[in-house]
Amino acid sequence: MEDAELRQAIAVMESYKERVEALSRQVQVLRVSLEEVTLTSDALKAFKDAKEGDEIMIPVGASSFVTVKVTSNKNVVVGIGSNISVEKDVTDAVEYMEANGAEISEALKKSADALNEAQQALANISSAVQQEYMNRQQQPMQ
Hints:
Blueprint: H1 3-49, E1 55-61, E2 64-69, E3 75-81, E4 84-89, H2 90-138
Antiparallel strand pairs: 1-2, 3-4
């Protein structure tokens, strides 16, 4: 490998490192989002199935829950993005959360696949660069 090729390989390796880091952050954010949507969906289903007067536990964030008594009002205020919320019937809210969860799951799968590809490419180019350094160290000085 010529010096110019080695420099180019190192630049590509750094680019893959940055991509792996960015994709790792993206996967983490998507996992947290999916966990939140799943928890919310489960709580909405419990609310939907509850009868008036039942007590149910509702998540309020940070792994904390409050006990509430169900009333006849089965409407839910749902965040739909960009700090916008709308009131929905609980059945519509459950459907919305399930659809949202499906979208996040798909994005998570694509991001995880891209992360795996980038990690493999990084491993391959890192190995080639390391091999070139070892080859250069073993060559006698001229």
